[in-house]
Amino acid sequence: MPLYDAIIVGAGVAGMAAASALAKQGLRIAIIDKGSPDVLKPGECLMADALKIMKRLGLSEDFIAANHRSLQAYHVNWGQQSSYQRHLLTSPMGAGWIVNRQHFDGMLLKHCQQQQVEMFWQNSLQAIARDNSGYWQLQLKNPEKLCLSARFVLDASGRARAFTRHLGINSQRLDKMVATSCHIHSVSELSAATATIASDYQGWWYYAKYSDTRGCLCYFSDGDLPLPDGPKTLLAQANKQNLLVPLLADARPMTSTFKRSAAYSSALQSCVGENWLALGDAAASFDPLSSYGMTSALSGAFYASQALKRYFNHQPQYLQTYQQLMQKNFLAYLEKRYQQYEQVAGYNSPFWQRRQQGAAA
Predict the structure, then answer these.
(1) Mean pLDDT lowest for which of 113-117, 284-288, 301-305?
(2) Among candidate residues 75, 298, 313, the one with its CA nearest the CA of residue 205
(3) Measured between alpha carbons, how far is residue 251 from residues 204, 246, 310 in Å?
(4) I want to staple 210 with a disulfide (CB 3.0 to 4.6 A). Which of 43, 166, 228, 330 is the partner?
(5) Collapsing DSSP states into helix, strand and coil, what is residue 197?
(6) How confident is the model at residue 357 (pLDDT cuts 50, 70, 90)?
(7) Which of 93, 52, 54, 40 is nearest to 71 (CA)?
């Protein structure tokens, strides 16, 4: 049975960044993921301050070399106020990036491969247990009935929380938000270096181009409210937004990329335990409006790898330091989240009422 220093459940940004950082410390690391490395994920915005944490993870040079699109401004129509542009070039942090996730995840996978991280794609957890030595035994769902053993497990499986769910760790969920998204083919340069955000009666829209010919269109609303049921419906509804109409004039949906995914805010009651921790969205998940997602995943990967390094050096107290940091970050996020949604008035709908009341939906 293969024995690892740590097994990471989930090959997203947090999981692969943590795996690379831990493997650089000389640890034997494996990643389990139910998907495959060629899945096309929505593009995301990354703020300039993320470069600091990428430097700490040893990723910054490859990231800059990938030439992700510059994010210089947000074009915003929020509530009943007139549309405006929020420029980033004059902000203290400076311009950010509209990230091509296919290239970004490919960079992370390359770093994992260079550090000899073992990847178990298209595998998910069937059962977990601990042996007499305290090592985790992870039984995978596959025809070979593969079982992996590790001293430590990191749950980086996103909101699914595939590992901590087996442990029965409770989580606090604030809302029912889902993202309905589709990749778009477009050669228009009207939205170059700009991400567009627009509110509507039952949610809000996001659109940005992450390459010369592709962009990502997303609609965010609650799962119990009416949602677009396909790529044509998504595009048709987006074209009712004055801010989006000129940007989508030549847009063609890539129909095979249409998907609906969880986007709710939540946090684990505890993101550390005996020989395990959670990171990324598995520890705390954020409303996409915050643009916290990728930055939080990268910083969580760095601080988790530092805590685990010290844990293996007989300094277990650093796991609690990590826990306190994750809690502090989530509480700071909640305050900003409520402030953003309180700015919107004039929509007498369940989506906006729920958020302006600051209550769980």
Answers:
(1) 284-288
(2) 75
(3) 19, 10, 50
(4) 43
(5) strand
(6) confident
(7) 93
Rounded average pLDDT over 302-328: 96
Q: CA 19, CA 130: separation in Å to the nearest integer?
A: 22
The dihedral over CA atoms of 246, 252, 255, 257, expressed in degrees to the nearest 10, equals -60
What's the CA gap between 5 and 119, in Å, rounded?
14
Structural tokens at position 272: 């550390």
For the cut 90, the answer to whether the pLDDT of residue 88 exceeds it is no
Residues 210/43, Cβ–Cβ less than 8 Å: yes
- Token pair 């477009």: residue: 186
Q: Which residues contact 235 (CB under 8 A, 6 or more apart)?
A: 182, 184, 217, 248, 251, 253
Does residue 310 contact residue 61 with C-beta atoms inside 8 Å?
no
DSSP state, residue 248:
G
Per-residue pLDDT tens over the stretch 126-166:
999 999 989 999 999 977 789 999 999 999 999 999 999 99
**What is d(CA 64, CA 71) in angstroms, rounded to the nearest whole number?**
14
pLDDT at residue 295 in the model: 92
- Rounded to 5°, the CA angle 40-32-43 comes to 20
Greatest distance between any 2 Cα atoms in the chain:
64
Instruction: Compute the Cα dihedral for 295, 337, 41, 307 and give only its sign.
Output: positive
Candidates 108, 106, 103; CA nearest to 14 is 108
Q: What are phi and psi of 126, to 5 degrees?
A: -100, -40
Say which residue, 112 or 87, is predicted with more confidence: 112
The answer, yes or no, to whether residue 358 has pLDDT greater than 80, is no
CB atoms within 10 A of CB 202: 17
Dist CA 88 CA 49 (whole Å) = 12
As a whole number of angstroms, the distance between CA 291 and CA 239 comes to: 24
